[in-house]
Amino acid sequence: MQTLEQPRLDIGEQAFVDQVIADRKGRPGALLGILEAVQEHHPNKYLPMATLDYIASKTGVPLSRVFSVATFYSLFNLKPQGDNTICICRGTACHTRGSRNLLQSARLSLGLGLDDISEEDKILLTTSDGKFTVRTVACFGQCALAPVVEVNQKIRGHVNERTLQREIETIERESE
Amino acid sequence: MSQKKISIRIDGALVDAREGQTILQAAREGGKTIPTLCDLDGITPVGGCRICMVEVEGIDRALPACTSPVQEGMSVKTTTPRLTQHRRLTVELLLVERNHICAVCVSNGHCELQTMATNLGVSTVRLAYNFPKLETDLSHPKYVLDHNRCILCTRCVRVCAELEGAHVWNLFSRGINTRLTADLNGKWGDSKGCTGCGKCVQACPTGALSEKGRAVEEMVKQNERISALAQRRGAEA
């Protein structure tokens, strides 16, 4: 569970958030766009609690609402992401095509272990060196390609353990 | 009032309604009862609990009475075997979702969920209990939030936003992980926006929100006062 952490935003970050909010002023549903832009700007592609607090105070949107929106959409992360994100679909179609095995093999090959496998909760795990994040989503809407894995914002269809392994190896090789 | 008069049938009896009213409002004014959980007179309906589902002639699926507007010549049925079955299942699902242990609850005997279950004859549930591990927030000086008893009706959310204007509450996350939260998932007692007015407590249908210091069966909610306040506000506006 996340609680409000105290450290304030630095000036540069504040200026960026102010600019993003100013660009979208008066537009209905601006909050989603603001959150997306701010998350994209962050080096670890996530929304720290202090940022949410700042966005709420600047836009006048209630804190509880900002938190509600940020936790409803799986696009938004409240925890820091690694440099590379492997996002495994755990929707029904992908599940029947073996996405649980994909998740487990990804976790094992990245040294994330298989502890605390909770089926209901969405999973977000980052390796200790900060290189990889493995997370799950409910559905990408690409069920015909099941099982689907998103590797660094690119959708891969009909993935099996071997192709997933190869993707990971490619990323590792490129980053060296 | 220049609103168009509409007459609809509810369980065979003619009921006068005005254009723009919902089936539920028309039924209440006509002296008919439709069971509800998430609805609270005076605040915006959300159609979340699905208890108030009614059958409308000519429409295959059941409609929520609290959010469906009345239409001329509508014929509504409020109790059919199908609807009763549906309502029972809904209540059962609510009961298995969290840890509703009536015997030790502050609202035992005054709980809308319990009353609903009794009225529908739900004495046992046919599904496995979920037994989630949930917290109790005792940080507020006057009130207690017990997630174990929450049915996510969002009455507190709406009362806080619409009547108090404090916007302290909201739901976060989704699906079975949905929880009530004060501000950014902080402690209720730390919330800067909370005025401590207690409207959310009075609006809560179960023992999820209660006054501190109440023992079992001692928490009697006064949600008619919320409705009265909403009416006064409406009249002023």
Under the CATH scheme, the architecture of the largest domain in chain A is 3-Layer(aba) Sandwich
CATH domain class name of the largest domain in chain A: Alpha Beta
Helix content of chain A: 40-55%
Number of helices of chain A: 7
Description:
The complex is a heterodimer of chains A (176) and B (237). Chain A folds into two domains: 11-72; 84-175, Glutaredoxin, CATH 3.40.30.10. Chain A is 44% helix and 12% strand. Chain A is built from seven helices and five strands. Chain A has helices at 11-23, 30-41, 49-59, 63-72, 92-96, 99-109, 161-175; strands spanning 84-89, 124-126, 132-137, 149-151, 154-156. Chain A has a five-stranded mixed β-sheet, covered by helices on one side. In chain A, strand 2 (124-126) and strand 3 form a beta hairpin. Chain A is elongated. The two termini of chain A are 34 Å apart. Chain B is an alpha+beta fold. Chain B has six helices and ten strands. In chain B, helix 2 crosses helix 3 (112-120). Chain B is 26% helix and 16% strand. Chain B folds into two domains: 5-79, Ubiquitin-like (UB roll) (Roll), CATH 3.10.20.740; 106-236, Alpha-Beta Plaits (2-Layer Sandwich). The two termini of chain B are 15 Å apart. The chains are: A alpha+beta (176), B alpha+beta (237). Chains A and B meet through helix 3 and helix 4 of A and strand 8 of B.
